[in-house]
Amino acid sequence: MRQPPKLRPTLWDFLTALCVAALAVIVAVFQWRGGQTQGLTAVVSVDGAEVDRVFLGYAAGEKTYQAGDYTLTVEYDQDGAQVLASDCPTRDCVHTGTITRSGQSIVCLPGRFILHLEGGAADPNAIDAVLG
Amino acid sequence: MKRLTAYVLGISLLLAGCGGPVDPDKAQESIQVIAMDTAMLITTYGERSPAAAYAAEDIIRDLEDCLSRTIETSDVSRLNAAGGEAVEVGEDLRFLLREAARLSAETKGAFDITVAPVASAWGFTTDSFRVPSQEELDTLLKLVDYSAVYDRDGPSADSPAVSLGPGQSIDLGAIVKGYAAGKIVGILREYEVPRANINLGGNVLVWGSRPDGTPWRVGIQDPARPDDKNALAGVLELTDSFAVTSGGYQRYFEENGKRYHHIINPATGYPADSGLASVTVAAPAGSQALWNGTMCDAYSTALFVMGEEKALDFWRDHQDGGSPFELVLVTEDSRVIVTGGLADRFTLDENSGYTCETVSYETAS
Amino acid sequence: MKLTTKQLTLCALLTAMALALSYLENLFPLSLAIPIPGVKLGLANIVTLFALYALGAEQALLILLSRCLLGALFAGNINALFFSLLGGLCAMGAMIVLSRRQVLSVYGVSVGGAAAHNCGQIAAAMLTLGSSAPLYYLPVLLAVSLLTGGLTGLAAACLFQGLSHTDLMKG
Hints:
Radius of gyration of chain B: 22 Å
Distance between the termini of chain B: 75 Å
Number of helices of chain A: 2
Largest sheet of chain A: 4 strands, antiparallel
Order of helices and strands of chain A: HEEEEEHEEE
Oligomer: heterotrimer
Low-confidence stretches of chain B: 1-24
């Protein structure tokens, strides 16, 4: 045998686990900090290019997007967004459920589709309606 | 596993200390309605917001059913097909015909629902665009006469019959959404809706204020960049108001390098060429809603046809009594003209490249 | 690299087992809880871990590559290949480093490998999408990797214990 492995956990094992946990917390702090639930804007991109931008404050209803070979139906409301239906193979995007905070995303890898919530404290200068 | 994820997420978010503030206006309903050839967005607030939003949708659907030119069984279609014979129609159409006649007289024919045959000749009703010949236009222009529309039994009659002149047809596209907005105000009152933001495809009705107590911010599309929905000429801050914009950029076709848009000047039969790129009319929705909503819609078209000078004269003429309304004109030479009542409620978009001037009633007279 | 018949047979056997484990974990898709496409529990890391100790890094790598390639072939999904390859290689690298010097037990090595596996998956998702959006899920995945790493560590420990009387471990 090359190197008989140790089979009982040592202090170092706990330290390793602690390191992983610490990494998780650090990333969490950076990624999840300041998640907002108000004044959200959903940014939809397909293949790296932004295809739609929906301000959730006054949004409602369903929109359909073409992402590669697949068609995704997204439902928007004031509180968030979710992929209602998709004909992609994994349907991870549908399983994600509703996202409601800035920083969250729904990803459809086969369609290279990302729905990302941007946001933050309702922009006092946000436009409520456009004439024309 | 799902629960675990939720738990981990929940704990982390708690630790991060970012539970958002609670929305005091949580009770709200937003619905999108595709009707009258456009996408409409109805957002109502308050306890009875869902019922109010759906009642508003019903109003829109009912009006479309009786006033659409493309639905064969509608009052308007039956009237257009009657060849000058009297047709019994509903109260909505009778109201609009009376209002349209009044608005046409007031605008000296710059607004005229009987321009429909001409607009059809240009293909704007069927999307089969073409430039009609002058003879064809001359023939059709003879049919354009709002005074030939006749409500034979008068406004209070029991048998509501109306007729057009022979060969005439009407299109209410330029007032029906404004009228719908006016009717929706009745719904908002009935359901005690404290605030609402209703966008009927460019006919905007803002009710109350925004949830944060500030006025609604209504953008005016930059007519030079119609494809960029974020490109604004400026922003109006409004409460309890109707606002409508008409502009040649909204619908047009090009032939031999020349652009022809959908707002036909009833006097010439050609798309209005008045030097204006868009006209925005705003008026209060708090009183006389039915009239003010319809008026805003009709005026935006009429004043676009009139051009800058006549439009401003028209505004001045209406300053004593009557229904007050205010204007934002965007000219083709990149000026934005704001009438007095809107001066401190309009903000020019810095990126638009327009210059802004304010017109007041006192200095002009 | 020259393999004895015994080594070759072992490698083939382990590859088959890794594929079976990959299939097994598809029955309990982690992506239902953490919907980052392509993310998996990493049960096949048990095999990598075992191979690393029993056969050495070279053959472990060979098994890993065969497993990923065959797995993608079976699934008919080139995206899956990229995900499993990047995840697997990251896990492998981490475990090679962590298993040196005999400081850590199989548990520590396994947890480190699982964490690296998940980092690799997220990296693959980020590369594929050209967006940092998947990073959002990394904390959850790392937390989960503590669990799955411990679990695969336990499985590996049992395996070593059970096989300690055989000559399998004698290379």
